[in-house]
TrEMBL record, chains A, B:
Domain HTH marR-type: 10-142
GO biological process, one term: negative regulation of DNA-templated transcription
InterPro entries to which the protein is assigned, alphabetical: HpaR/FarR, HTH_MarR-typ, Tscrpt_reg_MarR-type_CS, WH-like_DNA-bd_sf, WH_DNA-bd_sf
The gene coding this protein: hpaR
The name this protein goes by in its record: Homoprotocatechuate degradation operon regulator HpaR
Organism lineage string: Bacteria, Pseudomonadati, Pseudomonadota, Gammaproteobacteria, Cellvibrionales
Source organism per UniProt: Dasania phycosphaerae
Length: 146, 146
DNA sequence: TTATTATGCATAACATGTTAACTAAATTTA
DNA sequence: TAAATTTAGTTAACATGTTATGCATAATAA
């Protein structure tokens, strides 16, 4: 479906990246929506599962979320009992964000499905091409940021 | 800057695509912001410059904007006098969106700068790699949508 | 022709993206 | 030490993303 060659302005880098991202996200969305998680909320949980107790600034960098968005997202996750805030001794400005047992439980339910989807994509597309794509994307960012 | 190898979950397709897109967008943002245009508003204007008088559904597809977003965006552009709505004879549900002279004038101011930025990126990255990237992205979308 | 369904589009409601204040705590400077 | 500055984080305000709902007009079935 929708195989028509891209015309004019639609064949642009931002649009192509957007389309690719949306196509990929569609594969991951269902298992997240099942648990009422947005892609952004899921990013925060994964980041904390990888390294717990990060402060907001660290979390913001790792999840590629701006502070205002992250602030609201963490509030939401706190209300849902998936993470908690803890005081950082020695600096009253910071707060460490810690994943709860319930958060970990949720992670353990979703992560396998997510990995499965990822494997599916990698296989469909070809692992070699996938690696090549990563490298091109990294290099693009690198070259642009000069 | 920020050259640390991506760890863990940050090396994922959605994240890499997001980073690349943001890096690219940053190059185009300034000339748009100069005229108080968002990337989305600019997409609509470009689409209409390419083919005028599209209805909302067509515009939605070509700009990769969902109808609710597009609805608000067009309202904004109408207020600013950059486009107008015209009745479609034979179907009272549709409305044709038409770019105004002022809209065209704005396009003619921004488009050259935009093209310039694009050339810069293509040159920095390498035209061959850019073409390869396009092809990989297209193929990724194609393979995923099955 | 009337009832039903489909289409085109708008609005509602809420999460996120984005820029700009703003607060309080920590650090630096004078 | 007092004042200025920096840092970490929140809140405000508005545009957009996203799903659901509503509402006409059009097309179709009965």
């Amino acid at each position: 479906m929708n195989k028509a060659k891209l015309r004019g302005f639609n064949r642009s880098l931002p649009m192509s990246l957007l389309r690719a991202r949306e196509a990929v996200m569609k594969k991951f969305a269902p298992s997240l929506k099942e648990h009422n998680l947005s892609a952004q909320q899921w990013r925060v949980i994964r980041a904390l599962k990888e390294e717990d107790g990060l402060d907001m600034s660290e979390l913001s960098e790792r999840c590629y979320l701006l502070m205002p968005s992250l602030s609201r997202i963490v509030q939401n996750l706190v209300v849902r009992g998936l993470v908690v805030r803890k005081l950082v001794e020695g600096d009253q400005r910071r707060s460490a964000i810690v994943i709860t047992d319930e958060g970990i439980k949720l992670f353990n339910i979703i992560a396998p499905k997510s990995a499965e989807r990822y494997e599916y994509i990698a296989e469909k597309f070809g692992p070699g091409k996938l690696e090549l794509l990563y490298e091109l994307l990294d290099e693009l960012v690198e070259k642009i940021d000069e």
